[in-house]
Amino acid sequence: MKNFFLATYLAVKEVARNKGRFLLVAMVIALITVLVLFIAALGEGLSNANRQYVANLDAELIVFLEKSDYNISSSRLETNTVKAVRRVEGVADAGPIYTSTSQIVSLPEPLKITILGVEAARPGMPTLLEGRYFRGGEAREAVMDASVAERTDLKIGDEIEIRSTQGTKDEFYTLKIVGLVDKQAYFFQPTIFIPAATWELVRPQSESELNSDTPYPNIIAVKLTDPTQVDVIKTRLQNEVANIEVADIETTINNIPGYTAQQGTVQTQGVFTLLIGILVIGGFFQIQILQKVPQIGVLKAIGSSNFVVGLSAVVQIIIVTAIGVGIGAGLNYLFSLVLPAAIPLAFNGTWSLVAILLLLFIGPLGGMVSIIYAVRIEPLKALRLG
After folding, report:
1. Same structural domain, 16 and 131
2. Which domain does 351 fall in, by range?
């Protein structure tokens, strides 16, 4: 215990006497911390912007058109498929989901959105936060994603104008906001939810599609009576319903175009940033040890053990790293308050904590070479007497 207190005293005393030098490296660590946490938040934000709606579906299975490779955009099912799916034993409910993109043009700056056609109170329709569900048929009503409300001043009761390309002409449709749901971004865009018949009317269509007024769902969200029977019901659906393939939520997310590659890229950036942190911290403390070889020689000459010298170096690294990480985490929090909502950042508490713990760990790891070197210093050689 005595050795521990002595090592801590030596480490704190040196940091206090050389504030400028150690503050400089602490600020470098702070910048690395900001970068690591920013990359982690960006990865989570991009992930949410791409998969948020699918990940939060009140369903266990997703039905696709056969041979669509679980790609939502490539799947287009027959209208009677929904009824066939609902008849399968073990299926509690099933809701068709229709996807398209559009633009709200009644704002000072047009906002690109995803339009999702769903059936109210069925799988595919998120739980309401405020207001009510839209009416059926071709009701010109919509439920708004909270992401839209964040980016605009829209609220329940307001009307929005949608621009949609019909054949070779632009048409404009007015929808009234009647409800609000939690954040439900899909494919990097905020969403609005409307009835299937209204979706068929307002979605962008080619000339050949204008003659049809039948909406064809892209996918069907399936809620099970017993969620533990996913594999059984999946097999049963594929055997009893024609021209479909079925996937669970995780498989659906991983097959969203670009999702896996995007996450791999962000994670690689995070790993390389941590490696840079190890090299920076290691390099600084190696130089630090080289500069004080005579002092370490004196300590050993008057009886200090290798344990005290090594522990003192470890404590010093931990103190400086902790100061840097603390400053970096504080700066990151301030940035999160001022960055605009349009930037897809999501500061996940769990991932941020993991990143901070990794940063605290890389300090001693980066300084390991300098610690080993300090322990191996011979007193006589350090004092140039041997």
Report:
1. no
2. 2-51+260-382
Say how far apart CA 141 and CA 120 lie, in whole Å.
Answer: 12
* Model pTM score: 0.76
Q: The tokens of 268 are what?
A: 């690689």
Torsion sign, CA atoms 255, 104, 46, 195? negative
- The span from the CA of 142 to the CA of 344, in Å, is 24
Q: Is residue 207 part of a domain?
A: yes
180 and 158 Cβ atoms separated by less than 8 Å: no
Report how many domains make up the chain: 2
CA angle 384, 366, 265 (to 5 degrees): 150
The answer to whether position 222 is within a domain reads yes
Question: 346 and 308 in one domain?
Answer: yes
C-alpha 169, offset from chain centre: 38
- Residue located via tokens 């109210």: 120
Phi, psi of 102 (to 5 degrees): -160, -160
pLDDT digits (tens, 9 = 90+) for 8-59: 887 788 788 888 888 888 898 888 888 888 888 887 777 777 788 888 898 9
Looking at the fold, whether 166 and 127 belong to one and the same domain comes out as yes
Which 3-state string (H, E, C) describes 95-151? EEEEEEEEEECCCCCCEEEEEEECCCCCCCCCCEEEECCCCCCCCCEEEEEHHHHHH
Average pLDDT per 10 consecutive residues for the chain, totaling 386 residues: 76 82 86 84 78 88 92 90 93 93 89 91 90 89 88 89 87 92 84 92 82 86 92 92 92 83 80 80 76 71 73 82 87 80 70 77 74 68 57
Q: Name the 3-class secondary structure at 299.
A: helix
Q: Is the residue at 247 inside a domain?
A: no
